[in-house]
# Entry
Amino acid sequence: MYLTMNRFKVAPGEAEAFEALWKTRDSHLKSVPGFVQFSLLKGPEAGDHVLYASHTIWESEAAFKDWTKSEAFRAAHSGAKGSDHMYLGAPVLECFDAVQVLSK
Amino acid sequence: MYLTMNRFKVAPGEAEAFEALWKTRDSHLKSVPGFVQFSLLKGPEAGDHVLYASHTIWESEAAFKDWTKSEAFRAAHSGAKGSDHMYLGAPVLECFDAVQVLSK
# Structure
């Protein structure tokens, strides 16, 4: 299992618009080979921002890399234009490999 | 869906021992009410550390809070004694509420 995480520091006044942006976009992910699950997560509020994280789970690193070169990737990100004012700094992408997974 | 994330900065020479510690412990999580899934994830290597994240998914925030007060929580953490030297700084816990989940 391979997980890519983007962390967004969102200005408190923009949190509602940020969530709406994600809920109304068409991510095109369901048709992407090797895609497993996407979650948008709302984290703790700090003084000047609300932390959000997007987690995307892939079958493999190769599936993620192929997606970044695809038309589906371009289409998924075209809706993000004009949203820069929502963030404090650029989103930070981190990629993780599963060492251990334990399910109920 | 509720997700608790711990982020660990592990000294590069301790990464193997850190992974072994997790793989050999008995987390007692499978019997905990409201537990859904646990993952230990290996992230990017920086100059002085390797980033690891543990993600635990719960049915609700209440399930997580109940677990932190339980005997299972105490038992799961008793094995962590003596591992402080593996980390650069204390692990950072962040809690997230799912805004959107999309599965294949």
